[in-house]
Amino acid sequence: MEADSSTGVAAEVESLRAQIAQLEATLKSKEKELDTVYPYSRSYNKTSVVTILGSEDGGKMLIGQTLRVGGWVKTGREAGAGAFCFLEVNDGSLFESLQVMVPKEVADEVGGLKALTATGTSVLVEGRLDATPEGTKQAVELKATKILHVGPCDAATYPIAKKKTSYEFLREKMHLRPRANTLGAVSRIRNALAFATHKFFQENGFLYVHTPIITASDCEGAGEMFQVTTLLGKMKEYEGTPSVSAEQLETLKAELAAQGEAVKAAKAAAAANKEDKELAAASKAAVDKLLKLKEEFAKAEESSRIVGGIKRLPDGTPDYKEDFFSKPAFLTVSGQLQGEFYACALSNIYTFGPTFRAEYSFTARHLAEFWMIEPEMAFCDLADDMQCAEDYVRYCCKHLLENCQADLEFINKMVDNTAIARLQQVASTPFKRVSYTEAIDLLKDVVARGVKKFEYNVEWGIDLQTEHERYLTEEIFKQPVIVYNYPKDIKAFYMRLNEDGRTVAAMDVLVPKVGELIGGSQREDRLDVLEQRIRDGGMDIAAYEGYLDLRRYGTVPHSGFGLGFERLILFATGLDNIREVIPFPRWPGNASY
Amino acid sequence: MEADSSTGVAAEVESLRAQIAQLEATLKSKEKELDTVYPYSRSYNKTSVVTILGSEDGGKMLIGQTLRVGGWVKTGREAGAGAFCFLEVNDGSLFESLQVMVPKEVADEVGGLKALTATGTSVLVEGRLDATPEGTKQAVELKATKILHVGPCDAATYPIAKKKTSYEFLREKMHLRPRANTLGAVSRIRNALAFATHKFFQENGFLYVHTPIITASDCEGAGEMFQVTTLLGKMKEYEGTPSVSAEQLETLKAELAAQGEAVKAAKAAAAANKEDKELAAASKAAVDKLLKLKEEFAKAEESSRIVGGIKRLPDGTPDYKEDFFSKPAFLTVSGQLQGEFYACALSNIYTFGPTFRAEYSFTARHLAEFWMIEPEMAFCDLADDMQCAEDYVRYCCKHLLENCQADLEFINKMVDNTAIARLQQVASTPFKRVSYTEAIDLLKDVVARGVKKFEYNVEWGIDLQTEHERYLTEEIFKQPVIVYNYPKDIKAFYMRLNEDGRTVAAMDVLVPKVGELIGGSQREDRLDVLEQRIRDGGMDIAAYEGYLDLRRYGTVPHSGFGLGFERLILFATGLDNIREVIPFPRWPGNASY
C-alpha cells in the first residue's frame, strides 16, 4: 500500500468514525425519548433511574411524562409539616437515586408517610416527572400520584439501616451488602471492567475459552490447591462395615493356608482311592470350606482397607479409584496450560474465570477464590505481549471513565481522591518499559544515594518485592511500568530462555496503588530447551507430555499473561481490602453463602 | 407522549439506525484496507486469515499486497511435478483456510516441499496476495516469497494426522482436539454465544455478578455436590500420630480418676498435719503426678480423635474446624440464591459461570462441570421473565447467524443439516406460550387419538419427560414453546404460588433438538407464604434466614431463569454429545488436563 493512499484512507476512517459517533449520540437520546420503559418490566411498566438521570440532560427531555419508578428508599424524610415526603429511590441502575415527592393523600392509601420513609423500603411509584427549582442537584423529580407497591422495612431490625456501617460489619451481612453505597458502586465498576475485558479481546479477534475449573492435571503443583472429592460424602456408606485388624487378617490368612493344605491332602487321599465315596465326599467338603474361607478372607481384606470411612491403598493413602474422577482432582490455579492448547490451534484466545488458592493468608490482598483473565497468543513475542497487556489495561480505564462516572465520583470523594486522576493518567499515557537489570540499577541507585531504605535488600537476582514494585511505579516513574527479562532462576520453567542464557522473556506490569497487576511471558517453544528446563527443575517429564506435544507438532512462538481481576478493581477504586471488590469473598474460615 | 410524535420519533430512530449501519459497513471495509496487520503480532507483521477471507469481497481488496500469514497446515500437496506445493493454512480466526502456493525454490530454503506439506506443520509465510482463476472456491491465494518460520510435524507420530478421527478418539487427545475441524468450529460458535450473552444483558441494563464457586451455604442440598476440602491433603501431617484405642483411653481415664482420689487423700492428710513436711511433699508429688496424667490423657484423647488421618468428632464424622473454611464447603450447583441477593439491591443482574453436579451420569447430555447463565430481575413477573428468556435466545441465534457463517455452513454440512434452518426460524419467530395444563391436554389428546405412544404416562401432575418436551416443541408446535404454571408439587419451594393454590409461576423454554433449554420462575416474594412453603417441605427454616431477609426488608416481585450454556450450543450445532461442546469435559472417571 502506498503511503499517500494510506493517509487518505486513514482520514476517511477518522471522519467515518466521527460521523458514526455523532449519529449514535443522537440515536441514543431519541431512543430514550421513544422508549422509557425498561423492557423486562413491561408488566410493571417501570422506567429505570438510569434512563432518567443517566441521560445527558439529566432527564429534562422526559419532563411532563407519566412514569413508574421502582426501587429501594435510600433516605426518606417528611416535609411541609407532614403534607408530603421526599424519598431518594435507588434501583441500582445508577449510583444516583431519584428524588420522589409523595403527597400525604397518596401515601395515606398505602399506610401513610411514615411507612414509606424508612431506609430499605421498596416502592413502585407512578407519577409525573417535574422540573426541580433552579440550583437543585437534580434537574428532575417524580411527583407521585400513586404507590403501586410497598415492601416495608423495619428500621428497628434492618441490619444495615444506619448510614455508616463498617466494611467488616457488612461482610457479616453479605446478603444485604450490595445495598450499601460503596458496594453498589463497586458492583457497577466490576461489571463495567468485566464487560470491557470481553469487548477488548473480542474486538481484537480473541476467542473466549472456558478452561476447566476441576483439574486432575499432573502438572499442577498440589501444594496450595483445594481438593475436589466425593470421598468424604461416601463415609456414611461404609459406616456399618466391620473393622478388621491386621491380626485378624493374619489369622484368617493362616486358616486359609491350613485349609489349602487340608484340601491337598483330602484330594490326594481321594485320588488314591477313586472308588471310596467317603473320601470323595470329604475332599469335596474340604474344597467347599476352602471356597467359603476364601470368600470370608476377601470380605475381611476389603473391610480392612476401609479406615475411618475411606478405602485405602496398602500405604494408608486414600484409594482414589473410589473418588468421582478415579484420581485426585483439584480446583484450578491457572488456565494457562489449557489456554496454550487452544492458542496453538486457534491463535488468539483468552480465559476469564475463577481460580483458587488454598493459602492460609489473611491479608487484604489475598482471596482463596478470585477471577483471572489469561490471554494467550500464537506468533507473538514478548514485545507483542507487553503491548497487548498495556492496551488492555488502558482500554479498561477508558471504558470505566466513560461508563461509570457517578460511581467513580463517589469513590473519588469517599474512598480515594486520586482514583479518577489515576485512571485518566493510565488511559492517556503509554506505559514505561524497563528491563529487570535496569530496574535493579535504578533501585540500587536510590538506596546508594540514601533516598530510600527498603526492608528487602536489592541485588540482581532477587524477586522484586511489593515495596520495590510500588517504588518503581509510584516514585521513580509515577506511572505504570513494565519490567521485563527477569533472571531465569526466579521464574517458571516454561518461560522462554533469552540469548544471554541467564534471563527469560518474562514481564510484569506494575501500577501505582497495587504494584504487580499483570505477569506474563513468552513461552519456551523449543522442544529441546523446554525438556532440559523440566529436567533441570527436577520435574517429572512424563507429566508434561501434552505440553511437549505442542512443541513437537507445529510449534509456534507464543506468549500470554495473567491478570488478577480483583487487583484491577483495587487499582481502579483505591479500596484497601480485596474482600470488598468481589461479591462473596472466601478466605480461611470464611465462606458465607 | 402523543401517538403522533411517538411515530415521528420512531421513524427518526429507524432512519438513524439504518444510516449508522451503512456507515459502519463502510468503516469496517476501510479499516481493513488500512490495517491488515494483526495488532498483537506486530513483531511478526502477521495478518489474520479472517482479515483476508472474512471480508465481504473475499480478500480481493488486498490483492497485490505483500502479507504475512501464520498458522497450521490443514492439508498440503505437491503440484506442478514438484515445482511447487499448495498449503491450506488455518490460523483459527476463521473456519476457512487460506491457500498458499509455495514455489520449490522458496521451500528449499527451509528444507524442501515435503517438510511443509505435512498436516499440522506450523508456518509463517510472506508472500503476495494474488487473484485465483475464475471459478476457484476462494478469490485469492498467497504466493509465498519467503518462509519465516516452520514448526515441523511428523505425520507418522502426529496423533490427529488422519482426516477423519472419531469424537471418542479426540477426547483422548484433549490437548490437540481444538485443531480438528468440528472442534475448531465449535470453539468459535461457543465464543460467539458467550459474547452474545454478555452483549444482550449489558445492552439491556443487567449487571454481571460473579456468584461464588465455593459455597458453604446451608441451603444447598449436599446430595450431588462436590466437596472442596484440604483435609485429605492434611492426612500426611497426622502420619506419625500414635493410634489410641478406646480401651487405652478408658484405662488412662481410670488412672486419672484414681490419682484424683489419691490427691484428695494426700491433701487431706497434709491439711490435718500442717507442720508435717513429708506429708506436704507427698501431697505436692501427688498433684504433680495428676497434672502429668492429665496432660497425657489430653494428648491421648487428641490422638484418639485422629482416625485414618482425619480428626473426628465423637460421632466419627470429620471435625470440619480443621478444614480450610472451618465447615464443610462445596462446589456451587446454582448462583440463584446469591443472584437474588444482588437483584434485590441492584434490580437486574446476571451470572455466567461454572456450576457442578457430582452425578454418576454417563449420558450424552450431562457433565460434572458446565457453565450456566442465570439472570435475576426485580419488579419482574413471570410474563416479563418469559419475554426476557425468549429475547435472549433469539438474540443469540441472530448473533450466531451474523458472526459464524462459515462455521455454521460446515456444521450444517457435516453434523446436522437442519442447524441453520433451526437458527433462522428461532431468530425470526416469536415463541409459543402454553400453560402446563394446556400442554398436558395436548399430549393426552395425541395419545388418545393413537398418534403417539410415550414411554411415560401423561397425567396432570407429572414432571414432563424429555420425550414429552421434545414432542411438544418438535411435533406439535414445530418451534420453541414456553410451558408455564406448573403443579407446585413438582417444582421448587421458592417459586411463587399462584392464586389457584396448586400451581406455581414457573416456566420452561423447550426447543427442538434439545427439549428443555431454560427453566425459570417468579420467586415467592411474600414472607409468610415462603415460610410456610419451607416448613411444608420439611426444611430447616433457620438455614434460610438470609433468603427470608430479602422478603423482610423491602421485598419486591422478582423473577429469573437459568440456561445451561452447553445445551444452547447443542441446540445451535445439533451435535449429539455434550462432551464435544465444552473444551475440557468432566464426567465420572474423566478429568483430563
UniProtKB/TrEMBL annotation, chains A, B:
<dbReference type="InterPro" id="IPR012340">
    <property type="entry name" value="NA-bd_OB-fold"/>
</dbReference>
<keyword id="KW-0648">Protein biosynthesis</keyword>
<dbReference type="GO" id="GO:0005739">
    <property type="term" value="C:mitochondrion"/>
</dbReference>
<feature type="domain" description="Aminoacyl-transfer RNA synthetases class-II family profile">
    <location>
        <begin position="188"/>
        <end position="583"/>
    </location>
</feature>
<keyword id="KW-0030">Aminoacyl-tRNA synthetase</keyword>
<comment type="similarity">
    <text>Belongs to the class-II aminoacyl-tRNA synthetase family.</text>
</comment>
<dbReference type="InterPro" id="IPR045864">
    <property type="entry name" value="aa-tRNA-synth_II/BPL/LPL"/>
</dbReference>
<keyword id="KW-0175">Coiled coil</keyword>
<dbReference type="GO" id="GO:0006421">
    <property type="term" value="P:asparaginyl-tRNA aminoacylation"/>
</dbReference>
<keyword id="KW-0547">Nucleotide-binding</keyword>
<dbReference type="Pfam" id="PF01336">
    <property type="entry name" value="tRNA_anti-codon"/>
</dbReference>
<dbReference type="InterPro" id="IPR004522">
    <property type="entry name" value="Asn-tRNA-ligase"/>
</dbReference>
<protein>
    <recommendedName>
        <fullName>asparagine--tRNA ligase</fullName>
        <ecNumber>6.1.1.22</ecNumber>
    </recommendedName>
</protein>
<dbReference type="InterPro" id="IPR006195">
    <property type="entry name" value="aa-tRNA-synth_II"/>
</dbReference>
<keyword id="KW-0436">Ligase</keyword>
<dbReference type="InterPro" id="IPR004365">
    <property type="entry name" value="NA-bd_OB_tRNA"/>
</dbReference>
<feature type="coiled-coil region">
    <location>
        <begin position="249"/>
        <end position="303"/>
    </location>
</feature>
<dbReference type="GO" id="GO:0004816">
    <property type="term" value="F:asparagine-tRNA ligase activity"/>
</dbReference>
<dbReference type="Pfam" id="PF00152">
    <property type="entry name" value="tRNA-synt_2"/>
</dbReference>
<dbReference type="InterPro" id="IPR004364">
    <property type="entry name" value="Aa-tRNA-synt_II"/>
</dbReference>
<dbReference type="GO" id="GO:0003676">
    <property type="term" value="F:nucleic acid binding"/>
</dbReference>
<keyword id="KW-0067">ATP-binding</keyword>
<feature type="domain" description="WHEP-TRS">
    <location>
        <begin position="248"/>
        <end position="311"/>
    </location>
</feature>
<dbReference type="GO" id="GO:0005524">
    <property type="term" value="F:ATP binding"/>
</dbReference>
<dbReference type="InterPro" id="IPR000738">
    <property type="entry name" value="WHEP-TRS_dom"/>
</dbReference>
<dbReference type="InterPro" id="IPR002312">
    <property type="entry name" value="Asp/Asn-tRNA-synth_IIb"/>
</dbReference>
